[in-house]
Specification:
239 residues; alpha+beta; 38% helix; four-stranded antiparallel beta sheet; 8 helices; three-stranded antiparallel beta sheet
Length: 239
């Protein structure tokens, strides 16, 4: 006699960037093992790889390219997966920056949503004739560039420029001329970026600073004082 086949509930979810619907099941023991192993390694690349694998395993209906999806889509989908698979309430131990004391906080994962910034625009205007059409970073892109938070200044500069190059989708000239950035050589791309003004560079940085992000702020008490802590991105919510 065969062992029984276990059935599982499914849940609907709207992908933030595309507004398309997917259906997913909770993650099971096999997915829990994948996540625990990644968390033990305390490595953001391992955690990212595991999160993408779990999402691919758990989506039962809908079309989503996990590698090509914006980081905030992946983080949002995984957060909702975590909420429906384990517990709506996640507990964290944080360190208050001022007093250095450890404090326990709780986050209701059902309340966590994508934060959108007013004025965010994926089109960056360089001058009266030329503008850029940007695309959001994916974890595949992040994995291909260097460490933006590295201690060595040269590494930071290279990683920053690599991220910009990877996230420029098109160069628009006037109303009709469109250049696909991927069609040009590294030398041509570098020469184009080097010709930008400091203001151009700041406007591109604004695209990254204001892009949608998974973010949630909680209050906690230190003595009689009420303070806040903002959780943002994969590492904050799942490390």
């Amino acid at each position: 006699m065969a062992l029984p086949v276990l059935s599982h509930p499914t849940f609907d979810l709207t992908i933030p960037s595309t507004k398309e619907e997917i259906v997913y099941r909770p993650f099971l023991v096999k997915e829990e093992k994948i996540l625990l192993l990644a968390q033990e390694g305390n490595n953001i690349k391992d955690l990212t790889r595991s999160v993408k694998q779990i999402i691919n395993n758990c989506i039962v209906e809908g079309d989503i390219n996990v590698d090509a999806s914006p980081t905030f889509d992946i983080e949002y989908i995984f957060l909702k997966l975590r909420s429906n698979s384990v517990n709506d309430i996640a507990k964290f131990t944080i360190v208050d920056e001022e007093t250095k004391k450890q404090v326990e906080v709780e986050i209701d994962l059902k309340e966590v949503e994508i934060k959108y910034t007013d004025g965010h625009n994926p089109t960056v205007i360089l001058n009266d004739a030329v503008s850029l059409q940007m695309k959001y970073p994916t974890y595949q892109i992040i994995g291909s560039v260097g460490n933006i938070e590295a201690e060595e200044n040269q590494q930071v500069v290279k990683a920053t420029f690599d991220m910009i190059k990877a996230c420029i989708d098109k160069v628009l000239v006037g109303e009709d001329e469109i250049h696909e950035f991927k069609d040009y050589s590294n030398n041509e791309v570098d020469a184009f970026i080097d010709s930008m003004t400091t203001q151009n560079f700041q406007d591109i940085q604004k695209f990254f600073d204001t892009m949608p992000k998974l973010e949630h702020t909680v209050e906690y008490k230190i003595g009689k004082r009420t303070k806040t802590r903002t959780f943002s991105g994969l590492a904050d919510f799942f490390s």
